[in-house]
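Session log. Operator J.P. requested a structure for one protein chain; no other inputs attached. Running the standard single-chain path with token output.
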Amino acid sequence: MIILIYLFVLLWEEAHGWGFKNGIFHNSIWLEQAAGVYHREARSGKYKLTYAEAKAVCEYEGGQLATYKQLEAARKIGFHVCAAGWMAKGRVGYPIVKPGPNCGFGKTGIIDYGVRLNRSERWDAYCYNPHAKECGGVFTESKRIFKSPGFPNEYDDNQVCYWHIRLKYGQRIHLSFLDFDLEDDPACLADYVEIYDSYDDVHGFVGRYCGDELPEDIISTGNVMTLKFLSDASVTAGGFQIKYVAVDPLSKSSQGKNTSTISTGNKNLLAGRFSHL
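Structure written below.
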């Protein structure tokens, strides 16, 4: 009888850690692992890192290449990146939450390229470091404020950070810039924030922002949004604070409008789509 009670307590403690959150079944351990998984690409663009370089990037930041299990744990709570990257032990793959014809071959899960015999192949990297300075993440709360790395201090050079916002179906995302100070560049090619009205930075491009003027508020067309922050190898600035809140779907008369320009600081340079409250 005592043994049965002991087993029941163990099973209860294990089951207590499992549950549904935002429509995704997960364990609290997964959340802890996922908090430290992030995607890295070379400053020069996607698919530029050999295995040794990818490993060095993660180790330079005090982390290591993520394992397959760590990447899958992150995917379970909404981590979705349409870019193949190195994992531990020379494995390559990427996490897909939402299937699509142009990313993931219409499947969900870890799109696994397997262990690569040629470690000189060039991909991105998936790192794991639960103690890293905040640079990106997956947010599922109904509201949150997030910041550039080190804010209110200046951000570092050579940053590439992704934030993925995943709300409940039927909700939209109202994005507001509270503080904004990036290197000012007429072409907005040095330091910038890009916003995508989608799960990744492949589809739904909204606009690219730099300079020191606050961009206008943006409302997503669905329940997901991706933000990318990139800084080059020289000149930094104060960084940014961005707030989002979940809102109910807007009426047809107040939904987003198509436009030929997007504000880039005080410049109109890039085409995209945005809407205001």
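Operator note: The mean pLDDT is 79.
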